[in-house]
Design goal:
53% of the residues lie in helices and 13% in strands. It has helices at residues 6-17, 20-29, 36-43, 47-59, 78-88, 91-96, 105-114, 128-139, 150-157, 164-173, and strands at residues 34-35, 63-68, 71-76, 147-149, 177-180, 183-186. The strands form two sheets. The chain has a three-stranded antiparallel beta sheet with strand order 1-3-2. It starts with 5 loop residues before the first helix and ends with a strand.
Length: 190
């Protein structure tokens, strides 16, 4: 049997827990083992419905069953629940789920909305988040490690907008560029 990828396992885990009755079953089984009939009586639902809920929990590895006479007794796999929760709900686990997501999509959309086809700003965004997207785009016109005079910075910014002083100040204020004695350089974010 092949191991499911982290996204599939996360979905299975959340699906198993995404029901009030299943959460109650887990709560009951956290106390001790119960038969399906007992669980049905406690929850005031049909035994077939309990079986349905238990199948989700068993598939996720959170509950196990053992046969005794004519009954199946179910128990919570506490260690499995704790291990899965710790592993699946970690920051690293969630970060693997963004593979293939274009993390620059927002910036690209803002740039598309605020720049003319010739690459000039229609207007300087008033919202900070959109302004930052525009500034990140503009700062790409500067080479990392290269020093620029104020005049050179203005010449590059003028390709985007005539308000060179405002955009230059914004680039520095938002820590995309730095300045010392009228010499500017791009901050390396890598």
């Amino acid at each position: 049997m092949e191991t499911p990828d982290i996204e599939t396992e996360l979905l299975e885990f959340f699906k198993a827990l995404a029901d009030a009755s299943r959460l109650k079953i887990i709560g009951l089984l956290a106390q001790r083992e119960y038969s399906g009939e007992e669980l049905a009586a406690f929850l005031d639902i049909k035994p077939s419905t309990v079986t349905h809920h238990l199948s989700y929990l068993i598939q996720a590895g959170l509950v196990s069953a053992r046969a005794e006479s004519y009954y199946n007794f179910y128990r919570l796999e506490s260690k499995t629940l704790e291990e899965k929760a710790r592993r699946l709900l970690s920051r690293e686990s969630f970060q693997t789920n963004v593979d293939g997501v274009d993390l620059d999509a927002y910036d690209k959309q803002v740039v598309k909305n605020f720049l003319t086809p010739e690459g000039r700003l229609k207007s300087v965004p008033l919202q900070r988040k959109k302004l930052l997207a525009i500034l990140r785009y503009i700062v790409q016109s500067f080479e990392v490690g290269q020093r620029y005079s104020e005049r050179e910075v203005n010449d590059i910014i003028r390709h985007f907008d005539d308000d060179t002083a405002g955009l230059r100040r914004d680039l520095v204020d938002h820590h995309l560029m730095t300045r010392e004695a009228s010499v500017y350089w791009r901050i390396d974010r890598e």
